[in-house]
Structure formats: C-alpha cells, structure tokens
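Input set for joint prediction.
Command: fold jointly, output tokens.
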Amino acid sequence: MNSTTNIATTGLTKSFGGVRAVDHATVEFQDGKINAVIGPNGSGKTTFFNCVTGMIRPDSGTVSYRGRDVTGKAPHRIAAAGIGRSFQLCRIFPRMTVLENVLAAARPRGVAALLGSARGTAEIERARGWLRRVGIDHLEGVEARDLSYGQQKLLELAGVLMAEPETIMLDEPAGGVNPALIDRIATLVRELNAEGRTFIVVEHNMELVMSLSDHVVVFDRGRPIAEGPPDTVRADPAVLEAYLGV
Ligand code: ADP
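tokens >
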C-alpha cells in the first residue's frame, strides 16, 4: 500500500456452490483516478463489486479502503467510510418522484419526516443541487418510472452523490443508455473526477472505457489477468484471448 491507494484487495475469493466467482483477486486502485474493470460476462466483476461494498461477504481475502481494513463490513459502514455505488440494474423507487428518490437515497426510512422540517429544507436544496448537476432538475416532480432508462441512471447517480462519497463505483453506467445520455454520464464522471472523486467503473462499452479511464483492470474467470493504461491493456495478448478465445 502507498499513500495514494484507494481500494485494495488481496486474495479476495468468493464461491457460489462450485463456481469460484472471484478467485484470489489482488487489485489496487489509486486515489483520484478513473479506473475501469472489464472482462467477459461471468468473469466476476459484479461479485467483486459486491464483496468490496459489503453486499457479499468474501470467503477469504481482504478489502481495504485508504489503508483501513473494511473486509466483511456491512454496506452502510462501507458507505459511511466514503464509498458510493450504483447497480447494474438501476435501483430507484419507480412510484416515487425524482426529488423524493434523491431524498430517499440519503435517508431510506425518513422522507416523510424530512418533508416540512428545517433540516428537510436544507436536504431538499441539496437534492435539487445534485439533480441540477446531473441535468434532470426539470423532472423533479415526475415519477421515476416515467423517466427514460438513461435518465433513471442519472437519478440513481444523484442519489449516490447525496452521500457525498469520495469514491464512486458504477456498475455498467452506459448499459441500455442512449448515446446522448452516455455522453452526459461520461462528462459527469470526468467533472466529478476533476473535483477529486475516485471512480471504479464496470463497463462493457469499450469505446467509453478507452476514452474515460486512466487505468483498466481486466478480469477473467474471477481473476485480474491484466492491468494498466487503456492502450496497453487493449494490446495485451492475454486480454485478446480472454475476449476472443484466440
Ligand atoms: P460479471 O459481473 O463479470 O458478469 P458475476 O460476478 O456476475 O460476473 O458472476 C461471476 C460468476 O459467479 C458467474 O459464473 C455467475 O453465474 C456466478 N454467480 C454470481 N452471483 C451468483 C449467485 N448469487 N449465485 C450463484 N452464482 C452466482
């Protein structure tokens, strides 16, 4: 570990029955970078995210965040430590409005109590600020189910940002999103990174990965098989083999 290490894992392992979804993964991400995690379907990327964010307890190995051991800690403790995340299948409340969703992301059990209180007013302003930032503030009164899928992803991101995370893990932010909104998501990630936030992004859109990330880690069968700057990784024979079977 050095002074700029963000999330680091050593020997991280998680099996489901006979399937070793993550297999002795030792990975280090640096503070202040946009990191991408890529790999074929089923290579363990989501399970890796779930182990890091406390959704799943690893069978063995360690997870640290800025030098602090967070292995097996509950999701709310990991979030409180400064790591926010989005999900592959966007997690929002479809029948709540856009504004209520962002408030609910920060206070899952207390939206009703929040509305009408002084603290609530400040929280609502903060929620509106993030909605403006992601570009959907004009939709604050619309039910989330009436947004396009890309807008729902932006809404989820606004909810993640309500917790003011220093590190943000995004699981397929561009999946199922139209090209115009992919551009907006990419711009947002770059801006939020320029403000000091570290990103770790699972993404299948290679064009986006190559243009967005500083550092790429490639998973295959639960293990990191290559890592480095996008251009280096793209030319790595082990990566071509994992993807194309050549
Ligand atoms: P990726 O995100 O790279 O597509 P996953 O982490 O979703 O990969 O899956 C890795 C492997 O673990 C796959 O073989 C998958 O079928 C298996 N797996 C993931 N989650 C579960 C689960 N909850 N129960 C059983 N098998 C799982």
